[in-house]
Design a protein that fits this description.
Luciferase-like monooxygenase, alpha/beta, 12 helices, TIM Barrel
Length: 336
């Protein structure tokens, strides 16, 4: 069975506040480990009132403290925004607090608008990304304890690094460095297959990873019926329309008619970005997962289930886990 993991946006809704959003993320992680999910990742976003994960390492600590076995990490830290030393200090600290449970996914984009990039006051940028990744690896290594400059207490923690990407650049770097690779097909699906081919064909084994490991980001929303799942999915669709409009508001409750909310152009833009989404009943979701894994050979699925109501979101992830088991069973029967 393909490994399942979760990417949580720590959404603030018009019925919650940032604390509630973080507590909901913590509660979801506690449930998810019982449903068999492997990882629970949180993404770094800035200047977005509807997402409460800007202080990503702090939110990771909150989530990890409320669970016991699931791996918790960043999907990802936007490395151009930070000095590698600071990132190593933060994640080295997390590794000591939660041994064997911390992941560090690294992105090359700023994760925000250019005005906010200037407010972050970082002079280096995407051009230094490969060097910054190597610097981070060095801080986490056992040899770091002998360096004049140390990221205390990161030495010897060997926090596993992941390269994130939505283009072929990340695939090439992950292959060259021998690191696991996560592709953001939940919002940028166009280059998915090309990036996977590049990553696998150019992969060089490393101390961290002996063979390629490819994770695929995918939007999946599950409910008891196809119609109800499609209705729940309108929350995410409205968020995309708002993003195109430059309106960074809070998450909205689902509506019955999404076409009354967005324009034809916004619909076309959103559906291009969401084209690999899987939305429906458990049977529909099982079929969608089966097709996606067969097409891509994904080792792991990083699932976004952007559902407005927390109880319904929990139910979505529970149904997804069950559907994935069903898909794995049907694939096994097909092989036999």
């Amino acid at each position: 069975m393909t490994t399942l993991s979760i990417l949580d946006l720590v959404r603030v809704t018009d019925a919650t506040d940032p604390r509630a959003a973080m507590d909901n993320a913590r509660d979801l992680a506690a449930h998810a480990e019982g449903w068999g999910y492997r990882r629970f990742w949180i993404a770094e976003h800035h200047n977005m009132p509807g997402i409460a994960s800007a202080a990503t390492a702090v939110v990771i600590a909150h989530v990890a403290a409320g669970s016991s076995t699931i791996r918790v990490g960043a999907g990802g830290i936007m490395l151009p925004n930070h000095a590698p030393l600071i990132v190593a200090e933060q994640f080295g600290t997390l590794a000591h607090l939660f041994p064997g449970r911390i992941d560090l996914g690294l992105g090359r984009a700023p994760g925000t608008d250019q005005l906010t990039v200037r407010a972050l006051r970082r002079t280096s940028g995407a051009d230094t990304f490969p060097h910054d990744v190597r610097e981070l690896q060095a801080y986490f290594s056992p040899e770091a304890a002998d360096r004049q400059v140390q990221a205390v207490p990161a030495a010897s923690t060997e926090v596993p690094l992941w390269i994130l990407g939505s283009s072929t650049y990340g695939a090439q770097l992950a292959a060259e460095f021998g690191l696991p690779y996560a592709f953001a097909s939940h919002f940028a699906p166009d280059l998915l297959l090309t990036a996977l081919q590049i990553y696998r064909s150019h992969f060089k084994p490393s101390a961290q990873l002996a063979r390629p490991h490819a994770m695929i980001g995918v939007n999946i929303i599950a409910a008891e019926t196809d119609d109800e799942a499609r209705r729940l999915a309108t929350t995410q669709q409205m968020s995309f329309a708002d993003l195109f409009r430059g309106a960074r508001g809070l998450s909205k409750p689902p509506i019955d008619d999404i076409d009354s909310y967005w324009s034809p152009r916004e619909r076309a833009q959103a559906m291009t970005m969401l084209q690999r989404s899987i939305v429906g009943s458990p049977e529909t979701v099982a079929q969608g997962i089966d097709r996606l894994v067969a097409e891509t050979g994904a080792d792991e699925l990083m699932i976004v289930s952007d559902v407005y109501d927390h109880a319904q979101r929990l139910r979505s992830f529970e149904l997804i886990a069950s559907a994935a088991s069903q898909a794995a069973g049907s694939m096994a029967e097909g092989v036999g």
